[in-house]
């Protein structure tokens, strides 16, 4: 698909702004605010809440892993992607808004988990179509910088939303709009704020980013063709060795990255005794560093390729991770952790641009469905391995070391991937 130069800059900006819009959900709902509220105030106990939240994420993650490739294959045969992304965006926004009704009582556990699973499913499925649109925005020689810009914009958007939510709602004295702290309404209102944020900043993509034309196929015909082609792709994935090796590599290093994100704060609290406020500041610093890294390495990606960029990021994180886990004080731990964070964003952004370069023409959405599959299908391995090693050795340091091992395994597989034109 050809995009005119005048329209291209506006379309690219609008595509990046969507990352600013939807990043509010994982930052505020999944990571910092609502998940903490659920485990500490809604569930019967923090331990029970943590387990229930984990199961909810696992169930929705499994649905994403199974349906992502299917939806991508169908979309490739129907042509258009924005209608799919639009429906999923609305579902995520509505489900997130319904979390407002989660009161601080155990009887609302099922309500919260239902809408968290729906919102997470819609958010992650939407990224399948969102990522696939990158291939149509610019030549493959420029997708690295665009992917990096968008990823950096997403980190910035999530953090701005988090800061506004914390100081404008959660910690505001007195609470705005007559919100009742005894009913946890300032915290619950963050769900409404995230929904409004997503809706307010998502619309430029649907207005300015061009979509592929419809293939003119009826829905059932597109479904049949999409499923048939997906089956053929899975049966003959060996004919795409670069893609297969890349997806296997990403399976390992994404588990490592997700484990670092999920347990970095827990490690800092348990090993160094950092409080909640310090953990939030630590998380913000890591996300700022990751965003800066993603935006900075965006240029490098286009010059040396996505594979090499990911390799640099993985080797740097593994190398920094060793002294980080040996650190005995926060004066050493925190600078090293922030330095490691600089390479988290590039590893993720360059993975997306590499997938664009590897994907066969006309199968981009289907391949990003498989991309989502590789990031989800073994998502339980990293946390389970960390938990087992920590329990067996009674050492958080050794437990976190498993994340570094996953990064190293992923890098060793990625070495064999050959990037087109490199």
| Gyration radius over CA | 21 Å
- Average of pLDDT: 84
The CA-CA distance between the termini, in Å, is 23 Å
CATH fold-type name of the largest domain: Growth Hormone, Chain: A
Helix content: over 70%
Number of domains: 2
* β-strand amount: under 5%
Extended strand count: 0
The CATH class label of the largest domain is: Mainly Alpha
**What is the string of helix and strand elements?**
HHHHHHHHHHHHHHHHH
Largest sheet: none
Spatial shape: globular
Number of helices: 17
CATH architecture term of the largest domain: Up-down Bundle
Backbone structural class: mainly alpha
Outline the low-pLDDT stretches: 1-7
What are the key terms here?
single chain, mainly alpha, Growth Hormone, Chain: A, 2 domains, globular, disordered N terminus
What does this structure look like?
This protein folds into 2 domains: 200 residues, Growth Hormone, Chain: A (Up-down Bundle), CATH 1.20.1250; 185 residues, MFS general substrate transporter like domains (Growth Hormone, Chain: A), CATH 1.20.1250. It starts with a helix and ends in an 8-residue tail after the last helix. Helix 4 runs antiparallel to helix 15, helix 11 runs parallel beside helix 14 and helix 12 packs antiparallel against helix 13. The chain contains 17 helices and no strands. The radius of gyration is 21 Å and the shape is globular. The longest helix has 33 residues. The chain has 422 residues and is mostly helical.
């Amino acid at each position: 698909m050809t995009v005119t130069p005048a329209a291209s800059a506006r379309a690219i900006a609008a595509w990046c702004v969507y990352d600013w819009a939807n990043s509010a959900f994982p930052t505020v709902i999944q990571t910092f605010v609502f998940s903490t509220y659920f485990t500490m105030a809604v569930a019967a106990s923090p331990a029970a809440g943590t387990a229930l939240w984990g199961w909810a994420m696992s169930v929705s993650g499994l649905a994403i892993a199974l349906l992502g490739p299917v939806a991508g294959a169908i979309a490739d045969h129907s042509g258009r992607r924005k209608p799919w992304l639009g429906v999923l965006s609305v579902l995520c926004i509505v489900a997130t808004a319904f979390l407002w009704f989660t009161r601080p009582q155990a009887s609302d556990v099922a309500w919260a988990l239902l809408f968290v699973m729906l919102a997470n499913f819609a958010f992650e499925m939407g990224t399948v179509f969102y990522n696939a649109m990158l291939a149509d925005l610019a030549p493959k020689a420029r997708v690295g910088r665009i992917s990096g810009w968008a990823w950096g914009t997403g980190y910035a958007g999530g953090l701005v939303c988090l800061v506004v939510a914390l100081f404008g709602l959660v910690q505001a004295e007195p609470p705005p709009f007559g919100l009742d702290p005894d009913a946890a309404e300032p915290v619950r209102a963050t769900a409404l704020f995230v929904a409004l944020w997503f809706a307010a900043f998502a619309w430029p993509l649907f207005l300015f980013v061009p979509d592929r034309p419809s293939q003119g196929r009826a829905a059932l015909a597109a479904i049949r063709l999409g499923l048939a082609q997906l089956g053929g792709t899975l049966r003959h994935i060996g004919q795409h060795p670069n893609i297969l090796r890349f997806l296997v590599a990403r399976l390992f290093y994404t588990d490592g990255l997700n484990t670092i994100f999920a347990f970095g704060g827990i490690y800092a609290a348990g090993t160094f005794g950092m409080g909640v406020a310090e953990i939030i500041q630590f998380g913000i610093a890591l996300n700022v560093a990751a965003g800066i890294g993603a935006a900075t390495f965006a240029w490098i990606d286009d010059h040396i390729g996505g594979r090499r960029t990911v390799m640099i990021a993985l080797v740097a994180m593994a190398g920094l991770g060793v002294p980080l886990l040996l650190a005995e004080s926060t004066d050493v731990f925190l600078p090293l952790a922030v330095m490691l964070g600089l390479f988290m964003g590039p590893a993720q952004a360059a993975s997306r641009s590499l997938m664009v370069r590897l994907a066969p023409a006309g199968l981009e959405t289907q391949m990003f469905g498989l991309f989502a599959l590789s990031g989800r299908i073994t998502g339980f391995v990293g946390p389970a391995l960390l938990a087992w090693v920590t329990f067996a050795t009674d050492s958080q340091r050794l437990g976190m070391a498993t994340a570094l091992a996953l990064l190293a395994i992923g890098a060793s597989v990625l070495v064999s991937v050959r990037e087109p034109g490199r």
